[in-house]
Structure prediction request, 308 residues.
Amino acid sequence: MKAYHMSKEEKEFIKKYDITKYDQPSIATDMAVFSIMGEKGDERQVRDAENYRKMPERKLKMLLIKRASYPYKDCWALPGGFCRKDEDVYETARRELIEETNVKNAYLRLAGIFGDVDRDPRGWIVSHTFLALIDGESCTLRAGSDAWEARWFEVEIEKKEIEKICGADTASMENEYHLRLFNAEIQTELTAVIQEKKEFRDYHETVRYEIMDSQGFAFDHAKISAYALLSLRQQAEDDGKIVFDLMRETFTLTELQKAFETILDKKLLAANFRRKIGEYVAETDKMVEGAGHRPARLFQRNLEAFYQ
Prediction:
């Protein structure tokens, strides 16, 4: 690609251009960091198709930071920070994730942009929110300058249908999502109610989310957390490739199925599940064994199915 060269006239235009005539927001990144973790680290055991329900329970967890300064002092926030002048939002997200978890190779994808003018009492701050997936049991949490405590919270969300109206070429739906995050170690519970309004006109969807109640969350991070969790679930439901970023390099099919069930919050039929993910996995020559159970085959990603 050839470099663009400005003409003399264009350079003169840029020199005289006054960018301050437009209001300028501050740009920040927030990260919804998820992991599937046990209560006391990972205790890998044999997990075959008949016995996977006996494996130690592992739960979907989300990383939050307790703020040590105003605004929202002592409330819990998503990890993140402001963009520097010499970096784009992706570089900011990567830098912040490394600083707070020491993880350099996490799944990281833009999930949404949140720019309500009243979302931050300090001023107009637009958040670019990223969905991040990491192995929380092998990372080292580190708090930043405006935070003094980082914790993993179990995350649950319940949907309640409020109203659904369908017409000839329009439809509207209203749902409530009841969000709960809990950390047993410090006996802390965060709750929120998020309203979802969907409208369909000429088959095109518009979705809006609004916080109806928020207890313990900083800023609008209850809404962002719910949005990110729903996005993770939808991607797991669609083709499921995102779930592999929560797995180790090798895994049993039972471990993989349990990860899907944890994210989707529902049980899956083993036969149907294995048909769905069959093209994405490849057998290895390794087995994992444990007392009382038969050996289970270890699998890995089928890279040909991922790199398309």
Remarks:
- Residues 41-53 have pLDDT under 50 and may be disordered.
- The first strand starts at residue 26 and ends at 37.
- The first helix runs from residue 8 to 16.
- DSSP finds six helices and twelve strands in the chain.
